[in-house]
Write a structure and sequence with these properties.
- This protein is of the alpha+beta class.
- It folds into two domains: about 70 residues, no CATH class; about 100 residues, no CATH class.
- A four-stranded antiparallel sheet has the order 7-12-9-10. A three-stranded antiparallel sheet has the order 4-1-6.
- A hairpin with a 2-residue loop joins strand 9 and strand 10.
- Helix 1 packs across helix 3.
- The N and C termini lie far apart (about 45 Å).
């Protein structure tokens, strides 16, 4: 995860008003985040990692933990939880995301997860320009709930994006398209609030 911290610092210009937070999510509905504890643990390291009520936490470089090759562990079984970066520029409306924030989340995820990929997959993506910048790769994002529509908004420019037919929460933002700047908003129109 420290590779994610490094990627945040390297690409911070994508969302300069933000700080780095991670968010924990349960893959099993039976797991309640109220019951989850996290700690940084190694042979000689044990540091509690506070988890906020919304499932977010921060991670700072601790050289003793790095030297100990420590891991972040929870009190739950492996594969019940997953995490991702949660980049939120202040004052973005509740029903929107900022494109630069999603780009920075992608760079953090790519920095951390590329070591989990096979040599051929990892280097194929690198040759294509990287996971977050290649026009050959379209990444799926998930809104908090079902969408009636999703629209890119930059000044007077507007462009409707497709919503997945299989999962109405899923859409594909144009992370690699530099025609849309980092301050572009992705506005959600939720299915349960659509005007009739």
């Amino acid at each position: 995860m420290l590779k994610g911290v490094d990627a945040f610092q390297q690409h911070h210009q994508l969302a300069p008003a933000t700080s780095l937070r991670f968010i924990l999510a349960a893959d099993d509905s039976a797991v309640k985040l109220d019951d989850v504890t996290l700690r940084i643990a190694g042979d000689n390291t044990s540091i509690p990692l506070p988890l906020a009520k919304d499932g977010t936490f921060t991670l700072e470089r601790n050289q003793a933990a790095v030297d100990d090759n420590a891991d972040i562990i929870s009190n739950k079984k492996k594969n019940l939880l997953h995490w991702h970066a949660d980049i939120r520029t202040p004052n973005v409306p509740e029903n929107a995301r900022r494109l630069g924030d999603l780009r920075l989340e992608c760079e953090i995820s790519w920095a951390v997860r590329q070591d989990e990929m096979s040599f051929f997959v990892r280097n194929g993506i690198k040759l294509a320009g990287g996971l977050c910048r290649s026009k050959l790769v379209m990444l799926h994002y998930q809104a908090p709930r079902a969408l009636a529509g999703v629209t890119l908004v930059s000044g007077e420019r507007r462009l409707a994006l497709d919503v997945s037919r299989k999962d109405p929460r899923v859409f594909m933002p144009p992370l690699s398209n530099t025609d849309w700047n980092d301050d572009t908003l992705i506005e959600y129109e939720y299915a349960d609030t659509k005007k009739l």
